[in-house]
Amino acid sequence: MKTLVVLTAALATALTGGGFAAANPASPVAPPSAAQSAAEDLPELPAASANVEVVDRLPETKGAISINYSTYRTGWRQREVMFVSGEFGLKSYDVSNPDKPVFLDHLENSALALPGDDVSKRFWENEDVDVDHKRKLVFMARERTAFGRQPSGPRPTGVYILDAKDPADLKLVSFAEMGTGHTTTCINDCQYLWTAGYDGTPPTDPDLYKRSGKIFVTDIRDPRNPKTATTYVDLNRNQGKTHMTHDVQVDAAGIAWVAGTGGTRGYRTSGWHFDPLTKKFREATAVNPIPYAGGGVPSKDMPTAFSHNSIRPVGSRLADGPKPSAKHPAGSLLLHTEEAFGSPTCANQGRFVISSLKGSGKGESWQASEAKPFHLETVSVWSPHDQEGTITDAGCSAHYFDIHDRVVAYSFYGQGTRFLDVSDPARPFQIAYYRPEAAVSFSPYWHKGRAYIADIARGVEIVKLTKGADQAREAGQEVVLKTTKPVDDAVLTTTNRSNRLPLAPDPDYGWACPMVLRRGGQGCTEGAASCC
C-alpha cells in the first residue's frame, strides 16, 4: 500500500492551450444528505440464488463501485490485472487465475486528495472506470461530493489520470478539472476522454435532468497535460431539449454510445463519413463527432426515459449478444437499461430494453422535438417484476450490465445480479440469479467465464454459472428460484435486511445515484453526518 502527498493546487487545475481550456468549477447546488458512505460489516445471511456458485469474495473491497481489466505481457509471460475503483480509491489485483485474485497495490484516497479535501471521507464516484490498454493508464472520474465537499465551498470535479505500467505500483499522473466527473470513457484509442454526468449548470429548473446535459471532451495525448475543450458534445439529447448525459460506451466498431435522459445515441468520432445533419461528407473527430444512430425508448417501455448505460453487440463482441437474423442483422440491436426509482414491485421501472436501431441512422433523434418526437423500435423488455427471487420494496432500479456468450449479467441495486439468455432478442429470459442479503449490487463484469460483481456494501464477489444455467438455456425456460429462510429472524432488522437497503439519495443526483449509509459503529450513531 502507499500514501502519496496531497495534490498541489497546480495539479488541481487543468492546463490550457491549443483551443482547449479548463472548465470553471461548477456552482454548488444542494446540501449533502446525512450519513453517506460505505456500509460496515454486515451479518452473513443466506442468499437467494439459483444456478450460481460463489467462487470467492474480496471483503477488503467494500465500497467497490466499478471494475476493469487489462492484459500485461512481458516476453512469453502474460497476466491479467483487475482494477477496482471504489470509495477507497483504486486497488489492483492479479486475476490470471480468475478464482484466486492476488492483491497488488492500493492507491489510497490521500493520493487523490486536492487541497481542501478531507481524506477521511470517501472518494466518489467513478461509476465506470476505464483503462488505456496500450499506455497502461487508468482514468477515475471525481464527483462534486468527493471527500466530504460541502455546497458552501468549492467542489472540484474532473478526471484523475493514473500510471499503471506496473500494476503493483500505481501512481498519479495528473488531474483534469472540468465541470463534471460522474463517468469518463476513452475515445479514439484513448487519445481523448468523454466525461459525462450532472454538469453543475445553475439550478434554474426544478428538474435536475434539465439542469445539465453535455459531454466534456478532454485531449489526453499528453497525459501529464490534459486539455478540456471549450465546446461540448451530445447537446439537446431528449427530443430536442437539454437533459443529462450519464455514461459512454464505445462498441467494437468504434461508435461512441452516449446514454442518458432521452435514450442512447451513437457517434462516429474518427474518419470521413456522411453527416446526416449537414448533408455533407466531413471528418469526424472527438470534439466534432458525426451522428450515427440511436434515440429514445417509448415511454411505455422506459417510463422515465433515463437510459443508464448501453452495449451494441458488433464486431468482436457480436457473439456475446443476441443471434443475428434477417430481422435483426448484425449491429442493428442496442441493449440498454433504465435507472429509476419509485416502483416497490418492479412493475414499471428499472427495465432492461433491447431496441432496434433500424430507421435511426439519418439523424432522426438529433432533429426530433417535443412536437415531433422520435423513438426506437422496442424489440423486448425484461425486469425483475414477477420473477422468482424478487422481493418488494427493495430497489428495483437497473444499473450496469455486461454480456458474454449471449448471456447478460445484469445488476440491480436491490434485486441482486440476474443472468439472462438473450440469444433470441425478442425473448430474454432468466437462467440464473444471485441476491445475497444486504447486497447493493452496482455492476457485474465477465472475466474468463466468471462474473465479478462490484457490490458497494459487500465488496467484489466472484461467481460462476452452474450446469443448471445451461439446462435452463437449453430448455428455454425461466429459472425458478428459492429463497432460504434464515433460522434467526432476529438478525433481519429493517437496517440490515436486503428489502430495506441502507441507501440515501445523492445530494446532487438524488435517487438517480444513491449512496450507501453507514449504520452506526466506530463511534458513529446511525444516520449521523459525522459518519460520512
> How much of the sequence is in beta strands?
35-45%
pLDDT under 50 segments (min length 5)?
3-42, 481-500, 518-532
| Percentage of residues assigned to helices | under 10%
- Treating each run of at least 4 consecutive H or I residues as one helix, how many helices? 2
Strand order of the largest sheet: 1-28-27-26-25
What is the 3D form?
globular
The first-to-last residue Cα distance is: 23 Å
Tell me the number of strands.
Answer: 33
* Average pLDDT level: 83
- Radius of gyration from CA coordinates: 22 Å
- Give the helix/strand class: mainly beta
Largest sheet: 5 strands, antiparallel
Would you mind describing this structure in some detail?
With 532 residues, the protein is an all-beta fold. 2% of the residues lie in helices and 37% in strands. It contains 2 helices and 33 strands. The strands form 9 sheets. Strands 1-28-27-26-25 form a 5-stranded antiparallel beta sheet. A 4-stranded antiparallel beta sheet has the order 2-31-30-29. A hairpin with a 5-residue loop joins strand 15 and strand 16. The N terminus and C terminus are likely disordered.
Compact description:
This protein has 532 residues and is mainly β. The protein has helices at 109-112, 467-475, and strands spanning 48-50, 52-58, 64-74, 77-86, 89-94, 102-107, 130-132, 137-142, 157-163, 171-178, 183-187, 192-196, 215-219, 227-233, 245-250, 256-260, 263-268, 272-275, 280-283, 290-295, 307-311, 333-338, 352-356, 377-382, 398-404, 407-412, 416-421, 429-435, 441-447, 450-455, 459-465, 503-506, 510-516.
